[in-house]
Amino acid sequence: MCTGVRFADSKGNLYFGRNLDWCEHYGEGVVITPRVARIPSPFLGTIEPKHACIGMAIIEAGAPLYFDCANETGLAVAGLNFPGYAVFAPEPVEGTVNLAAYEVPLWIASQFSTVAEVRAALDNVTIVNKAVNDLWAVSPLHWIVGDGTESLVIECEADGMHVYDNGLDVLTNQPPFPWHAENVRNYMHVSCEHPEPVTWTRDTLKAFGTGAGMVGFPGGYDPASRFVRAAFLNANYPAEEGEAANVTRLFRTLEGASMCKGGAKMTDGRYEYTLFSDGFSAATRTYYWCTYEEPARRSACMDDYDLDGAELLRVAAA
Ligand SMILES: C[C@H](CCC(=O)NCCS(=O)(=O)O)[C@H]1CC[C@H]2[C@@H]3[C@H](O)C[C@@H]4C[C@H](O)CC[C@]4(C)[C@H]3C[C@H](O)[C@]12C
């Protein structure tokens, strides 16, 4: 499973991150796509970035296949698993902007600077069931896109593409986003406030202690439980000042929905767990990440690299 989260600081700077919950690595690393890079694209010919991007990716056939990425203007996107629901167009559709599913994050982050721009552009986009080559299958993903103001969700199903405004600023996995947005209503009673004593018949009931208002908060690793946890924490986390405190907020919120080995097995018997967490701060144009084995956060600031180059920069292994 995966979980994505977005929020902004008091100045409107985007903080956006995700957990990558899975059972194996793909050789991924932190990759910068500079502005002069020309990325081969099956339907567009090339993608010519308007904005430099940074994110977690593998590089295949000259293209950065981003799991998630962000750009220098403060727009970010993450792909999360959506199996059983994701259906992409079998063929490109003439007269539309045709994107292979693997290039959606790069296209969004390299071409746009706001969610509003992305929403408008998606009116004329077809996401095609096209693999980068014979080595990699098409992943059944949906995407969360965020900026300093808002976020949206893109889901392609058998009945076409859906673009949802996301008033909770989180995403997990299946079922589709509207189901999760309804399901959170089952948890409206969950509160971070300390409950006041109440009288039942002749007894006065007092809370055992802190957290009493959270009884009923779902603890599971299933997508619905993680969605509620991330949405609650994202909504209730107190506003913070400064980069360090906001990055801590991002990673602690993600940790609230993360998966530990031993909790959930995949159908093949392997444990699924949070291989890594990563995130972007638009305030400092810095990408942060940490892994399951090494929780100390590492970082790469876009300003420290040549964003006007033509070559993809693999900054670090995950
Ligand atoms: C497995 C990852 C999603 C994790 C997740 O959401 N798990 C949910 C588990 S469950 O089903 O809901 O049980 C996804 C997210 C991004 C994906 C990767 C990116 O799309 C980049 C390339 C794209 C290529 O087509 C396939 C390899 C790949 C390197 C993808 C492998 C895999 O599908 C990734 C890593």
TrEMBL record:
Its UniProt entry gives the catalysed reaction(s) as: taurodeoxycholate + H2O = deoxycholate + taurine; cholate + taurine = taurocholate + H2O
State if Lipid metabolism is listed as a keyword: yes
The record ties this protein, via Pfam families, to: CBAH
Positions of transmembrane segments: none
The molecular function GO annotations come to: choloylglycine hydrolase activity
Residue ranges of domain Choloylglycine hydrolase/NAAA C-terminal in the record? 2-312
Q: Its annotated pathway? A: Lipid metabolism; bile acid biosynthesis
Q: Which GO terms describe its biological process?
A: lipid metabolic process
EC class name: hydrolase
InterPro entries found in the cross-reference section: CBAH, CBAH/NAAA_C, Ntn_hydrolases_N, Peptidase_C59
EC number annotated for this UniProt entry: 3.5.1.24
Q: Which SUPFAM superfamilies match?
A: N-terminal nucleophile aminohydrolases (Ntn hydrolases) (SSF56235)
Keywords noted in UniProt: Hydrolase, Lipid metabolism
Family under the similarity heading: Belongs to the peptidase C59 family.
Supply the name of the protein.
choloylglycine hydrolase
From which organism does this entry originate?
Adlercreutzia muris
